[in-house]
Structure formats: C-alpha cells, structure tokens
Amino acid sequence: MKGLPITLSQLEDLFARMGEELDVEDELLWGYFFTDKDKKKLAPVRDELVRAGYREVALYQTDDETTYFLHVEKVEKHTPASLHERNQHFYAIADRFGIESYDGMDVGAVEDNEE
Length: 115
Description:
single chain, 4 strands, alpha+beta, globular, Regulator of ribonuclease activity B domain-containing protein, RraB_dom, 4-stranded antiparallel beta sheet, Alpha-Beta Plaits
C-alpha cells in the first residue's frame, strides 16, 4: 500500500470541515480511488465494485503517464466510523488484488439526477 492509511481521527476532522458546506447527516455522493501502474490490474477491482453497487466514473491515466486511477462512486450516508470501516475494506481489496493502492475518497452533494 502506498502512503499511510487514512485514520479515524483524520476522518473526524474531515467531517467537521465538511459540515460547513454539506449536510453530513444526509446521503452524499462518495467517490473512491484506486491506483496502479498496470491498467489491466484495475479491471477486476472495478468489476467487483460495480457488482457491489458502485458506479464506475473513470479509469484514466495520469498526465505523466506513470499511473492509472480507477474512480468509482456511490450515494451513501457515512459517519466517520462507517467511512473508516469502508476505507479498511478498500485497503483490503487493494491488497487482495495486488494493486498499488486504495488512494482515498472525495465527497460531494447528491445532484437530483444522480440518484
């Protein structure tokens, strides 16, 4: 795994900051990112996550052409603890499939047409 895992304390801080712009008690659009130098290694990760109800957003190469990113998303309601559990699950998926990393998440409001 590349980098340090995201801690529960970091997620608690994230939720505190998010509360200034988003209703953290509501469902939000969560994006999750996985990386590897080999695009083909990300395909089975994508397939498993799509089967689990995530939507593939993109599988793209970085500008410097050294790494591929898989971006999936799902409308979900999280607390810092539930997001921490989700991250642990995704770190385990990255390990199981032998990819470079689960690279973290982003979040935004749910648009009316995305549900």
